[in-house]
From TrEMBL:
<dbReference type="Pfam" id="PF00892">
    <property type="entry name" value="EamA"/>
</dbReference>
<feature type="transmembrane region" description="Helical">
    <location>
        <begin position="244"/>
        <end position="261"/>
    </location>
</feature>
<keyword id="KW-0812">Transmembrane</keyword>
<feature type="transmembrane region" description="Helical">
    <location>
        <begin position="96"/>
        <end position="115"/>
    </location>
</feature>
<comment type="similarity">
    <text>Belongs to the EamA transporter family.</text>
</comment>
<feature type="transmembrane region" description="Helical">
    <location>
        <begin position="67"/>
        <end position="90"/>
    </location>
</feature>
<feature type="transmembrane region" description="Helical">
    <location>
        <begin position="150"/>
        <end position="170"/>
    </location>
</feature>
<feature type="transmembrane region" description="Helical">
    <location>
        <begin position="124"/>
        <end position="144"/>
    </location>
</feature>
<feature type="transmembrane region" description="Helical">
    <location>
        <begin position="40"/>
        <end position="60"/>
    </location>
</feature>
<feature type="domain" description="EamA">
    <location>
        <begin position="11"/>
        <end position="140"/>
    </location>
</feature>
<dbReference type="InterPro" id="IPR050638">
    <property type="entry name" value="AA-Vitamin_Transporters"/>
</dbReference>
<feature type="transmembrane region" description="Helical">
    <location>
        <begin position="213"/>
        <end position="232"/>
    </location>
</feature>
<feature type="transmembrane region" description="Helical">
    <location>
        <begin position="182"/>
        <end position="201"/>
    </location>
</feature>
<feature type="transmembrane region" description="Helical">
    <location>
        <begin position="267"/>
        <end position="286"/>
    </location>
</feature>
<feature type="domain" description="EamA">
    <location>
        <begin position="153"/>
        <end position="283"/>
    </location>
</feature>
<keyword id="KW-0472">Membrane</keyword>
<dbReference type="InterPro" id="IPR000620">
    <property type="entry name" value="EamA_dom"/>
</dbReference>
Length: 305
């Protein structure tokens, strides 16, 4: 039984990594025609409808009480706040850089878990943080020289913290099926994104360019529905800490895809900084020595509905 669970988790991990690697490129294409929050609203609104339809087909129950409250909070944080900041940042920075910064999520999640009393502090976490921060500083030289506003980098780092906190939150939530958690969470986030888009005066219009439609279709079906169901499946089998490996591998996929489709230059700063970030995340968050708690080890999160 255990080998079967491991194979299923590994397959879900590989699928989530490959699919998520194209997300940032899809967002870049979407942002060229659609206002960022409007594009994010369309993405998660459509994804929520698809997942709600899947819930109906699978006859999954709607969460109630604490499970509903936790699922809504997860959705607002993981999809609403995180992607609002990420969409804004990706107007100005290439997909490879954006996903490389997201490689800090596992390390940020570890430090937040320590701060919230879920895990004990380890010296490796401090070393990893310092190495990763140096990598971010090296990588960020390129956009700063191109006169990208500092708030853009702050928005990207804000998305990192939001993703990390949502991962910490998941460990405390009642058991909810991955499809249900994503369906309800994305629906809640879509409402907030539509409200935010309306408040800032976005132009609400459907795409007119074929590339935008293709990008939107990708981030809805592959980048939202499939990616996040697979990601929560990995958490279900492996726990949040091991599932965070997804964010370490994604940049490698994103850089290749962005160089191929979006003409992202493979600059020296990107090539030098990326390994530093990945090494820092590995040393601080992914190297041996971290024992998952009982809830992680048993795969309690995400089972049932």
């Amino acid at each position: 039984m255990q080998p079967t669970r491991d194979r299923a988790a590994l397959a879900a991990f590989a699928g989530a990594t490959l699919l998520a690697g194209g997300n940032a490129v899809g967002i870049r294409f979407s942002n060229r025609e659609l206002d960022p929050l409007w594009g994010a609203s369309l993405r998660f609104g459509a994804a929520a409808l698809l997942l709600l339809a899947i819930m109906a087909v699978l006859r999954l129950r709607f969460p109630r009480g604490k499970a509903l409250a936790g699922t809504l909070l997860f959705g607002v944080l993981n999809f609403g706040v995180s992607f609002s900041l990420a969409y804004y940042a990706l107007v100005y920075i290439h997909a490879g850089l954006g996903q490389t910064l997201l490689a800090l999520v596992p390390l940020a999640a570890l430090l937040l878990a320590v701060a919230q009393g879920q895990e004990q502090f380890r010296g490796a976490a401090l070393v990893g943080t310092l190495v990763a921060v140096v990598g971010v500083a090296v990588v960020s030289q390129a956009p700063l020289r191109a006169d990208v506003p500092v708030p853009v980098l702050l928005a990207a780092l804000g998305a990192v913290l939001s993703f990390a906190e949502s991962a910490v939150l998941v460990k405390r939530l009642p058991k909810v099926h991955p499809v249900t958690m994503n369906a309800v969470g994305m629906a809640a986030a879509a409402v907030l994104l539509f409200a935010g888009s309306f408040a800032i005066g976005d132009r609400w219009a459907l795409p007119e360019i074929a590339d935008t439609w293709w990008a939107l279709a990708y981030v809805v079906v592959a980048g939202s529905v499939l990616t996040f169901v697979l990601y929560l499946t990995v958490i279900q089998h492996w726990g949040a800490s091991r599932a965070a490996y997804v964010f370490v591998v994604i940049p490698l996929v994103a850089i290749v895809v962005s160089a191929w489709l979006d003409d992202e230059p493979l600059t020296v700063s990107l090539l030098v900084g990326t390994p530093l970030i990945l090494i820092g995340v590995y040393v601080g968050a992914l190297r041996g020595g971290h024992r998952p708690d009982r809830r992680e080890a048993t795969g309690a999160v995400g089972e049932g509905d």
